[in-house]
Amino acid sequence: MKRQALTAAVLSSALLGATVGATPAMAQEQQYITIGTGGQTGVYYVVGQSICRMVNRSAEETGIRCNAPSTGGSVANINGIKSGELNMGVAQSDVQYNAYNGEAQFDQPMENLRSVFAVHGEPLTILARQDADIHSLDDLQGKRVNIGNPGSGQRATMEVLMDAKGWDTSVFSLASELGAAEMASALADNNIDAMAYVVGHPNGAIQEATTTVDANLVPLDGPVVQELVDAHPYYSMSTIPGGMYEGNPDDVETFGVRATFVTSADVDDEVVYQAVKAVFDNFDRFKRLHPAFANLEPEDMISNGLSAPLHDGAKRYYQEQGWL
Ligand code: GLU
Fold it and tell me: Cβ(152) to ligand 1 under 6 A?
């Protein structure tokens, strides 16, 4: 009896101590944020995982925990943010523009879309089996080409390029819709002749494909590409450096976009502020997480490739830093 009473007293004082001694973070409500990425062999997955790693480092103080699952890519991420299933996501700069303005894949302008920052450059990367003899955009005609899963950014950009060429999918002998994680093995297994991927370099998918089959990167230049670049601020000519992938020692000219990090105006200012602060307060650490991040500069990241207005929470951090 006596013992029990003592135990109860010890327990209750321990509980009391825990309550009284609670840090503000423990008392704080936990918030969870989900960031939409892309296939696991792309770079978006690393972007999302890296942002979460920085955010989760300060979870004790902020009460914010972050996860970044694999998704179908840019268009799927923006649709996920629109439906509230995702809080934030990575999206190509052309897809961001189309979503904000209600063009291409988007019926309605998404007025509450907000940009947070731009990340690495993403060239439209066509990789072809060497035995398919594809050395230019026009050589893709009559071939088996993976144009990307609906929901991916590569599919969106391929549609723009096909439109500009006056092509539909019937110019290919097969237009497959495999997702990012499946296309490298489809190329190696000779189920397709070429794959299209809008992606930062180096990345796992192109690495996987070039180490399992003889494959060449295809240059995309010429007047149609040049016209696209001239007509749209979010496109620019872009080079895939030689020597990054087996069997591809030379630079390859193509065009591309920027990867951008986006959210919705409905997401709390404090949550976006803390996510941005986590990345930029630990920026050197962040940049070491992928070679495509090595040359990122904050001032450029908050001014280029962004069509939607900056989120207020992000703006607050940038103003504090004197970047705006
Ligand atoms: N740009 C691709 C997309 O929007 C994703 C690239 C990646 O995962 O790195 O779907």
Answer: yes
Q: Please, are residues 215 and 135 in contact by the beta-carbon 8 Å criterion?
A: no
DSSP code at position 310:
B
**pLDDT tens profile 18-59:** 443 344 445 568 999 999 999 999 999 999 999 999 999 999
Superfamily holding 30-119+259-320: Periplasmic binding protein-like II (3.40.190.10)
Residue range 122-258, CATH number: 3.40.190.10
Q: Where are the domains of the chain?
A: 30-119+259-320, 122-258
Position in ligand 1 atom list of the atom nearest CA 74 = 4
CA distance 117 to 130: 38
Give the residue carrying structure tokens 């696209």: 228
8 A C-beta contact, residue 153 and residue 77:
no
**Nearest CA-CA partner of 146 in 165, 163, 166, 124:** 124
**Residues contacting residue 268 through CB under 8 Å, at least 6 positions apart:** 31, 313
| Rounded distance from Cα 169 to ligand 1 centre (Å) | 21
> How far out from the chain centre does Cα 280 lie?
18
What does the block give as tokens for 248? 């591809």
What is the model's pTM?
Answer: 0.91
